[in-house]
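Weekend entry, working from home. Most of the wet-lab plans are on hold until the incubator is repaired, so I used the time to fold the two sequences that have been sitting in the queue since the last round of cloning. Logging both here for the record. First:
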Amino acid sequence: MVESILEETEGCISSNHNVLSVLRDKTNDVAARKEEACKKRRKKRTTTSLVSSCFQDLYRLTGEVLGRGAYASVQTCVNLLTDLEYAVKIIEKIPGHSRARVFKEVETFHHCQGHPGIIQML
């Protein structure tokens, strides 16, 4: 256990030309490892994939509005590959809207995934 926490480093301190061994605590490296892991996660999110994640690349809005709410509207769209029509809820990002309320709306849809009344969340 001690070996896994402490690392021996030679030549760090010299006294009267005698080289001493110094034990360095590896727990100080925890912050560095966390930062490195965070950077790796950021890189994973920014990598491109073969599947397009842009809505406009996969669907075309028809302009027909099915309904409106305080934070969003429901419109029809057409899948560009299959020509099938879908309803899509578009949450508007307006500076005056409460950020917490908009995130609550998104979270509600996330929890409803797999429900028979909701087709799919994109």
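Second, folded right after the first finished:
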Amino acid sequence: MKIIARKPVQIAIIFYLGFIAFYFYNFNFNLSDDNGKWGTFGDFLGGALNPILGIITIVLTYDIIKGQEIENKQSEFKYLFQILFDVIDENKNLITFKRFDKTHHGRDALYIINKNIENLYKSLNEVEGSDENDNFEKAFWSVYDDINQSSSTFMKTVHNLLKIVDTYCVVERKSTYSDLVRAQFHSEELKFVLYNGIATGGFKNFKTRIEKFTILKDLEKDDSISESLKIRYKKSAFVEFNKKNNFKYDKEIFGYKINLKIIKIK
């Protein structure tokens, strides 16, 4: 079907030439002087080609409709993405942490929140025989309760942004949009995203998308994050494909372009 959609005229010509060749083969490569035979052949040619041309027309119509459907979906995607993207900073500033008599907001609050999670996690790990994964979940949810769940709106926005990029964006643009999302985050915000991704098994889809789009790229060499937490993510969460070591092969054969790309990961 895809071949017909791409090369409709060429396919019709091939069939037409095929029937002409069949005619000459049938009459020993000589032109017949019998008008009746030519009329019969014309009827045969028309009857054979009409269904083929009809199929090509149907396929082309389907291809046009499919293309419009994809274009409409991309318009909807861009609209939803823009709405969520525009409220990232607003939702970030909803995060609050009260310390002594002062209430911290946004990035300042996240700095304190991250420190509290890290310190409590390290303290719990000092207990002999304790499980590091359980300790982290206890530390995270303890601090989460202290901030009255004020981070939930921000994290839902981040999750939904990655979800619609993963689900609705065309493949060749996914990297562009996910990079745009990642570029909005300071290191403290990325740390909090990292912690959320492993806070519970229920966030598996979120964690998978963090890994898929290399959202934690800027934290790869951040030594302030416990290695025991980093290794709970796949390497792809921190390391992008090394484009310098890409091998790309482009060649056109019989009118078809062959693209082959081999990518080396750091």
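Plan for Monday: verify the second prediction. The first strand starts at residue 96 and ends at 99.
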